[in-house]
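(Protein data)
===
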Amino acid sequence: MKLKKPIASLVSVVLLTLGMATLVTSPASAHTNAVSATCSALSVDLRYYQASREGSPAQGYTEYEWTRTVVDQAAWTEYVRYTYTPEKDGAANPADVSSTPVTDPGHWNADHKGYDDSAVDTYIQSGNGRGSWFWWIATTHEAKTHVETQWSKNKPAGDGWTKTGASRFHETSPAVPAKTNHVVVTIDGTAVEDTDFSTTFTKSYTFSDKYTSHTYSVAVTAWDDPTGHNGWTFTKSGSSIACTPPVIQVTAVFPEPIAPTCTTDGSLPSLPTDQTGITFSWDKKNPLKMVAKADKGYILTGVKFRIYDEPGMATGDCYVTQGDRDRRSRDVPGG
């Protein structure tokens, strides 16, 4: 008697364990797809697809190109003094012969003296007319510079920086593409649907003529099954079976020709257009033969054609009766 309780407890544990196993192994709702066609419409039913997910752009920051001009050596002027040395055929006064270090370099020598603020490009004499002659030449040298470049989110420290307009993006995390499912429905070679969908897409497409067969194709792309390994991405094509048209019996009533009169020729009747389920036409080989043909869904009973006589010409036998003459005479004053 004391074993009943432990046994009952054991049974409860086993049942609970089995119940838990059932809960764990129970499959969740999976993608389901159904494409079916009747003689009159195509139906597409896609359910339990993975919901669409919005994408996000790449994360990061933008750097800009900055440049500035750095002076390595400032512009400067070089002064060189030249001393006149007549020697051989040189004149005592260089001005007498317009001799300068430029035009007559053979009689002038650079003496590498320091500049003393003397005038340049002119004659200078030292020593009461009996001394030496000098000539200063000034040469300007341009500054030596180079362009410094930096890439930075903000203006770099220091003066003279200018943004060039060039930029570059540093990606810290990649973009996340949007995820969505897509369906394309084609009927008789024409796309009638081309759209994204999230978890569900259900739609029916009525065929233009249910009494004829139609080709169709449904192409579905599931974003979580791009290769179709699981069957969620698929293409299904086929042809509908035409509906059987209803059988309605109709009888053609052929119109009568127009008879000639004394003044007008006779003529064939016009083709009727008001008889349901029947189309009338003239036979191409016999212009006097009117043919009746049943439209789709109708069966023609009775006479299917009528051959008319050649229309008669105006009789020309118009006449006035004695009664007409008597009436006319009464209408004429004094008649």
In short: The helical segments are 4-25, 322-331. The first helix runs from residue 4 to 25. The first strand starts at residue 32 and ends at 37. The chain is about 10% helix and 40% strand.
